[in-house]
Design a protein that fits this description.
Chain A: The chain crosses the membrane at residues 6-27, 34-54, 92-116, 136-160, 192-215, 227-252, 264-285. The complex is a heterodimer of chains A (293) and B (390). Chain A has one domain (2-279): ABC transporter involved in vitamin B12 uptake, BtuC, CATH 1.10.3470. Chain A is mainly alpha-helical and 293 residues long. Chain A is globular. In chain A, the strands form 2 sheets. A two-stranded antiparallel ribbon of chain A has the order 1-4. Chain A has a two-stranded antiparallel sheet with strand order 2-3. In chain A, a hairpin with a 4-residue loop joins β2 and β3 (136-138). Helix content of chain A is 72%, strand content 3%. Chain B has 390 residues and is an alpha/beta fold. Chain B folds into 2 domains: 40-154 and 294-376, Rossmann fold, CATH 3.40.50; 158-287, 3-Layer(aba) Sandwich (Rossmann fold). Chain B contains 11 helices and 15 strands. The radius of gyration of chain B is 23 Å and the shape is globular. Chain B starts with a helix and ends with a strand. The chains are: A mainly alpha (293), B alpha/beta (390). The A-B interface holds A 2, 5-6, 9, 13, 50, 54, 110, 114-122, 128, 134, 137, 139, 211-214, 216, 218, 222-223, 253-254, 257-258, 261-263, 265-266 and B 48, 50-52, 54-55, 183, 210-213, 215-216, 218-219, 221-223, 225-226, 229, 242, 245-246, 249, 253-255, 271-276.
């Protein structure tokens, strides 16, 4: 029974990583850049929901407001900080800018919301599921998180493969220049990617803080890094890869804590990552694209 | 091209020289102004005013500010007014050392700080080299007061661990102990190790000791489940309040009903904005200060604090307040004056600290030669959203 319970905890933690990882993977797949500020957009999303709910707004409306705010924020960051550097000589320039934006968002939150942790309201009122005579408890938040993760992955896969804008994204991800020649508006497509990624960040923020109800300006930083790891693990650029990578990461983390040692859980997670990358350098679902000379 | 380079390097050397000379000049004039005919004592403070541990730093700052205001209104120390200046270290050792240097440039003569352990260890090394008097209100790691110049107002980590085991044993809180500690924090690890050593002496059995690190401090379900399965009847939490808030929530979700027992890091739990205080019902903690204590000193402090900052003070505020009064008592005992150098003040205070007895908010305190305080441990239990002294 212990095993099942750990497995469920792992999947539920992993689902949060997975939703965050989707944002990383989409942006990387299309814009070929690591948006290190993604974790901090999550934090802003969580604060917006918290503020809205405290102000007496219906939780569902609050989540929608937060998605709008994050979308606008994500698109603004892209326009102001990333787009001018897209054709810079070194890809490092935009990476460093992303790290800068990450610190900027953290410091703004520090000034606006203060450093003290705030407790996140317990608004997901789904009753816990009790199995095997109360031995196995699956919390409501865990079920909602796992459910949301599956819905988002299915919807995104459909969007990317079946809609015009989605196909445009795929085209841009494969060859920006050729896509432009085919009449695709590359700038608008990249903007759309950031919009979707940031709206996902808002949802991830809500689910992260519902599961672990404490918000600080640094809330997004560490989950952001773990989710980035998950995206690489699953094969960066791949949507199903991000989901599987996230869930595996969560499960490995929890199992490492449970069966090996709670002190070295993170070391175990990253060792597994190194082994996977040694065997399969593009990640579990990554495509091996050969560069033509 | 070559000439241009040479010109450039010459110019750079010139700029550097000017900077060095200017730096020296500034330092010299700063030193002389603080030692010549200065009419006020300058006490510096260092602590996290922003960042994840800001609750502690701000509380210490507020408590200290209140004490300085009272002292100045009552005529100062040895008839001289006191200036107090607090610098932010964001709970980071490197920034703390920078803050220390900033305060030295300001003319600091005594240091009240730092607030948290890891930065304190770094600053203490600097202060020892400078022979600057240091009293930490709340730095609990043993190494915070390694030098002869340093004193401590709160209990050290080993003392907290030992006193916690003593309290649990003597008051029959439980027999089988589960522990969740932060293996990446010297504070948490220090308390845990000494608690584990002392537990045997009180017939307590540590049935599960689970760790987490600062990088994975969100999910505690595994640790809680292992402790629950081990049959613990008390969970000892030598950690800070933000993780504790999450642990209490997750324990409730998995229907783990037990007694949680913590140390001074749990103080602040009830002031987390939006925290459901019913989760903390029955949580016990070792703390030398409770805002609802009935003695005159506490009542006055709580009323003044509320008037100044519209909030109830936590233990760290009381620590900051007491630390300033400890400096005052020692300064009066040693008869120091503001025109003495920081090093002379330190020598005088180190001798007088061991002679004073401070009736403070956190108990009646006297100090040993090694800088450790001697006072009674007290425990509080959270009932109806308030700390109640046991």
């Amino acid at each position: 029974m212990g095993f099942l319970s750990y497995l469920i905890n792992g999947i539920s933690l992993g689902s949060v990583y997975a939703i965050i990882a989707l944002g990383y993977t989409m942006v990387y797949g299309i814009a070929k850049m690591l948006n290190f500020a993604h974790g901090d957009v999550i934090m802003i999303g969580a604060y917006v929901v918290l503020t809205a709910i405290t102000g007496g707004i219906n939780p569902l409306v609050a989540v929608l407001i937060s998605m709008v705010v994050c979308t606008v924020l994500g698109m603004t960051i892209e326009k102001v900080a990333y787009k001018p550097l897209r054709n810079a000589a070194s890809p490092l320039a935009v990476l460093i800018t992303a790290i800068g934006i990450s610190y900027l968002l953290q410091n703004i939150a520090l000034i606006v919301f203060g450093a003290a942790p705030k407790s996140f309201p317990d608004f997901i009122k789904v009753p816990a599921l009790k199995l095997a005579g109360g031995e196995l408890v699956i919390s409501g938040v865990a079920m909602v998180t796992i459910g949301a993760c599956v819905v988002i992955v299915v919807a995104l896969t459909f969007f990317v493969n079946r809609t015009k804008q989605g196909r445009a994204m795929k085209a841009v991800s494969e060859d920006k220049g050729a896509a432009q020649l085919m009449g695709i508006n590359v700038n608008a497509t990249i903007s759309l990617t950031f919009a979707i990624g940031s709206a996902l960040a808002a949802i991830a923020g809500v689910l992260l803080c519902a599961a672990y109800p404490s918000v600080t300006p640094y809330t997004g930083a560490m989950p952001g890094i773990k989710a980035f790891t998950a995206a690489v693990f699953g094969g960066i650029g791949s949507i199903p890869g991000a989901m599987i990578g996230g869930i595996l990461l969560g499960v490995i983390e929890i199992f490492g804590k449970a069966y090996i040692s709670s002190q070295v859980a993170d070391a175990i997670v990253f060792s597994v990552l190194i082994i996977v990358l040694l065997v399969k350098p593009t990640g579990l679902f990554g495509k091996n694209i050969q560069e033509k000379v | 091209m070559k000439n241009k380079k040479r010109l450039l390097s010459a110019a750079l050397v010139a700029v550097m020289l000017v900077a060095v000379v200017a730096g020296c000049g500034k330092k010299d004039s700063g030193d002389s102004s603080s030692s010549e005919g200065s009419e006020t004592f300058k006490i510096g403070g260092i602590g996290p005013l922003t960042g994840p541990a800001a609750v502690y730093g701000i509380a210490v700052q507020n408590g200290a500010d209140l004490a300085v205001k009272e002292i100045n209104e009552a005529g100062g120390i040895n008839g001289k007014q006191v200036e107090f200046k607090m610098e932010d270290d964001t709970h980071d050792a490197e920034k703390a050392v920078n803050a220390y240097n900033t305060l030295k440039d300001w003319g600091m003569q005594m240091l009240m700080g730092t607030v948290t352990s890891d930065p304190c260890i770094a600053v203490e090394a600097e202060a020892e080299a400078d022979n600057m008097f240091l009293i930490t209100p709340s730095g609990t790691a043993v190494d915070c007061i390694k030098g002869g110049n340093a004193f401590r107002l709160c209990f050290s980590d080993p003392t907290q661990g030992i006193k916690a085991a003593e309290y649990i044993g003597e008051h029959g809180v439980g027999k089988k102990i589960g522990v969740i500690y932060d293996s990446s924090s010297s504070y948490s690890k220090g308390i845990y190790e000494n608690f584990a050593k002392e537990a045997d002496n009180h017939d307590l059995e540590v049935v599960a000791a689970e760790a987490f690190t600062a990088d994975s401090n969100k999910d505690f379900t595994v640790q809680l489940k292992k402790i629950k399965d081990a049959g613990a009847d008390v969970v000892f939490l030598p950690i800070y309040y933000d993780e504790t808030a999450l642990i209490l929530k997750q324990a409730k979700d998995m229907e783990f009903d037990t007694t949680f027992f913590g140390c001074d890091g749990l103080d602040g739990l009830l002031s987390v904005e939006g925290f459901d205080t019913s989760l903390a019902e029955g949580v016990m903690l070792l703390t030398p200060f409770a805002a609802n204590a009935e003695d005159e000193l506490t009542k006055k402090f709580v009323a003044d604090f509320d008037a100044a900052y519209s909030q109830t003070p936590i233990q760290f505020a009381a620590d900051g307040y007491d630390a300033i009064y400890a400096i005052k008592a020692a300064a009066e005992e040693g008869g120091i004056t503001p025109d003495m150098s920081a090093s002379d003040i330190c020598d005088a205070l180190v001798t007088s600290m061991t002679k004073i007895e401070l009736k403070g908010l956190t108990g009646t305190i006297s100090w040993a030669d090694d800088g450790e305080p001697d006072k009674e441990p007290k425990a509080a239990i959270i009932e109806g959203g308030e700390y109640v002294m046991k």
